[in-house]
Amino acid sequence: MMKDPVTISTGITYDRENIEKWTFSAKNNICPVTKQSLITSIELTPNVTLRRLIQSWCTINASHGIERFPTPKPPVSKPQIIKLLKEAKSPKMQMKSLKTLRSIASENDANKRCMESAGAMEFLASIINNNSSEVFEEEEGFMSTKTKHLASSINSNYLKMD
């Protein structure tokens, strides 16, 4: 049963998890139904109407052991990641931004791909490699080793994509 229906550019609706596996893990660039070519950066549009219909059906059939699934959290967007990366350059916002990035990376592979396309890997590598002296200044009690460790943990989590 679809839990997070999304529509791709061909107009066909799929469950988010399955179409992401098809396009990203299996590296397919065609629609499984229409065989039309997909754009390089595939846009997944949530099909809210279908999701609500499925959730209503689950609620109506609860007496038959069907459980209603919660509304899925929307994936992170590239502009959100870019904003966090900019904030992470400020010593005052760095730890908070890095913690948020770590949380986002741990949620799912789609977020990790979004982080990659926004340039997060290069930024995290620069923190780990100590390429930017301003990033490592001690600020509000946070030492550079804590910053490096946090950046490294995000990088490690990121590399564990399916």
From TrEMBL:
Pfam families: U-box. It comes from the Eukaryota. GO terms for biological process: protein ubiquitination. Residues 1-64 form the U-box domain. SUPFAM superfamilies: ARM repeat, RING/U-box. It is an enzyme of class 2 (transferase). GO terms for molecular function: ubiquitin protein ligase activity. Its EC number is 2.3.2.27. Keywords: Transferase, Ubl conjugation pathway. Coiled coil: none annotated. Pathway: Protein modification; protein ubiquitination. SMART domains: Ubox. The keyword ATP-binding does not apply. It catalyses: S-ubiquitinyl-[E2 ubiquitin-conjugating enzyme]-L-cysteine + [acceptor protein]-L-lysine = [E2 ubiquitin-conjugating enzyme]-L-cysteine + N(6)-ubiquitinyl-[acceptor protein]-L-lysine. Functions as an E3 ubiquitin ligase. PANTHER family: E3 UBIQUITIN-PROTEIN LIGASE PUB23, WDSAM1 PROTEIN. This is U-box domain-containing protein. It comes from Solanum lycopersicum (Tomato). The lineage of its organism: Eukaryota, Viridiplantae, Streptophyta, Embryophyta, Tracheophyta.
